[in-house]
Amino acid sequence: MDRLIYLDNAATTKTAPEVVEAMLPYFTENYGNPSSVYGFAAKNKEAVTKQREEIAKVLGVLPKEIYFTAGGSEADNWALKAAAECCGAKGNHIITTKIEHHAILHTAQYLEKRGFEVTYLDVDEDGVVDLDGLRAAIRPTTILISVMFANNEIGTLQPIREIGEIAKEKGILFHTDAVQAFGQVPISADECHIDMLSASGHKLNGPKGIGFLYIRTGVKIRSFVHGGAQERKRRAGTENVPGIIGIGTAVKRAGDTMAERAKKETELRDYLIGRVLNEIPYTKLNGHPKKRLPNNANFSFRFVEGESLLIMLDMKGICASSGSACTSGSLDPSHVLLAIGLPHEIAHGSLRLTLSDETTKEEIDYVVDCLKEIVSHLREMSPLYEDFVKKNQA
User: What pLDDT digit, counting tens, does each position of 370-381 carry?
Assistant: First the structure.
């Protein structure tokens, strides 16, 4: 394989060189435990505080409202389970959507087994939540609304500000899984009335194994990990100092370059979408055509099996996916694509391409040229496609 073109940045991103450089001293030189009292360790406590401030600045919140976790999935689990435990006396009803990440869906199912009731909202064909449907789903016993900021598979951006306004008006806690959106699009926790927000380092050129949960001051949820007084007694365990340095550096980098990256990625994304839709027949773009992440393009190719498509792209040196990396071993079609109304046979032929700020137009052209060749080849082997062509020629 002569070349590698990485277009699976929704699964994970390359750790930026400046992030790695910032982290390295905290493995071998500044290795003190931030909870210790001597000066050598106190420097690490100051470093952790600085990264908390950098993250809070990008989100427009207070540093004390940022709680470090092991990643987005932990933050999602914490938000739902702790809110359910804390607010159980008020009610037992939670609202989410059918297209959430499985960190939310599986946690919601866990809570259902423990007596909570969960409403899973439908979305339209673009993957957007209907606000009237949300209002209608609210009950006197509703304690939490959790809607992702941007979908990890189809890239659709939700009307988060409007959802936050509804939640605030009704006095309901509002959580958003912003793992895909944070660092990609501007987010103001105050303007969107967000009470809790999940994010992860490795989605924005930071390291794996580190994330955070934003918890608005005044939100009464309990600790998720017990055993120590770290993270202001809400998340026990010795702080992952190198990881925290990494995510803080990555967040600052993402905030400083967001406008420039979004412009470049949006232009390349639209160029990619235009070429694919114009040059490969019987192809559908999944997700909202405009209200989507700058780097996300998700297609369904009729009469094509997604797994075969990925294997053949890999042989060409192209890294892509058919959906969430967390379900890559599943033979079932994406729950997101089924929720937006795609039939099983079309959902199986889907491809997600997610760009980075290093992606070039030359790479996009190569990918589309390969896609045209591969899709044509796979369709030639499909009896369904052969029958379809004969029927349309008759």
Answer: 999 999 999 999
CA 268 to chain centre: 20
Is position 370 annotated as part of the catalytic site? no
**Which of 70, 44, 41, 64 shows the shortest CA–CA distance to 225?**
70
Q: Is the pTM of this model over 0.90?
A: yes
CA angle 278, 281, 286 (to 5 degrees): 75
Amino acid identity of residue 388, one-letter, is: F
Which parts of the chain fold into alpha helices (H)?
17-23, 25-28, 39-59, 72-87, 102-112, 131-137, 160-170, 230-233, 241-279, 306-315, 335-339, 344-347, 361-380, 383-393
> Among residues 86, 87, 319, 326, which one is catalytic?
326
Instruction: Decide: 346 and 31 in contact? Cβ < 8 Å.
Output: no
Residue ranges of alpha helices (H) inside 146-195 are: 160-170
Give Cα separations from 112 to 38, 102, 105, 121, 300 (angstroms). Answer: 47, 15, 11, 15, 33
The sheet with strand 350-354 has its strands ordered as 283-286, 296-301, 350-354
Which CA distances in Å does 264 have to 14, 185, 261, 274, 358? Answer: 18, 13, 5, 16, 10
Dihedral angle sign, alpha carbons of residues 176, 227, 206, 71: negative
Distances in Å between the Cα of 204 and the Cα atoms of 9, 185, 351, 354, 364 are 9, 11, 21, 12, 21
Q: Are 184 and 295 in contact (CB under 8 A)?
A: yes
Q: What gap in Å lies between CA 52 and CA 62, rounded to an integer?
A: 9
Q: Which of 6-20, 259-273, 277-291, 331-345 has the weakest average pLDDT? A: 331-345
Q: Give the model's pLDDT for residue 89.
A: 85
Q: In the structure encoding, which two tokens stand for residue 217, read together?
A: 């001051």
Neighbours of 269 (CB within 10 A): 23
Task: Note the pLDDT tens digit of each residue in 140-181.
Answer: 999 999 999 999 999 999 999 999 999 999 999 999 999 999
In whole angstroms, what separates CA 125 from the centre of its chain? 19
183: left (phi over 0), alpha (psi -120 to 50) or beta: left
